[in-house]
Design brief:
The protein is of the alpha+beta class and about 120 residues long. It contains two helices and four strands; from the N terminus they run ααββββ. Strands 1-4 form a two-stranded antiparallel sheet. A hairpin with a 5-residue loop joins strand 2 (about 85-90) and strand 3 (about 95). It is rod-shaped and about 110 Å long. The N and C termini lie far apart (about 95 Å).
């Protein structure tokens, strides 16, 4: 062992001795582990659950957005303009479509019902 290594060893021993003496006299204390409070833990779990539910809702909503195609037996009108479009149906009723609106209806209505889809 070289002189430098012996000096380093003695220095480390002196620091350890001083540290233990200061700790024994109560002048320094070991840092305690800080436990999160119950409120903080509950908040974290609640936030995680809320984020999970939000992600589930968004994914369900996104994947259920299938493009609904109207029945091919129905007639369709779609107003692509910003002005109002007036359309008269087979039974004489008048439909006013605002801009970017669509209506789907059968060519001939049944005797007991008139179903349209907007």
């Amino acid at each position: 062992m070289t002189q430098k290594e012996r000096n380093n060893r003695k220095t480390d021993q002196a620091w350890d001795k001083l540290y233990h003496r200061l700790e024994k006299d109560g002048l320094i204390t070991l840092p305690e582990k800080i436990r999160p409070s119950l409120r903080t833990t509950a908040f974290k779990w609640t936030a995680a659950a809320a984020i999970l539910l939000l992600c589930m809702y968004a994914s369900i909503h996104y994947f259920n957005q299938t493009e609904r195609r109207p029945d091919p037996n129905l007639l369709s009108r779609h107003n692509m303009e910003t002005t109002t479009l007036a359309t008269t149906l087979e039974d004489g009723s008048i439909v006013y479509l605002a801009g970017d609106a669509s209506i789907h209806y059968p060519e001939h209505f049944q005797a007991d019902k008139r179903e349209v889809s907007l």
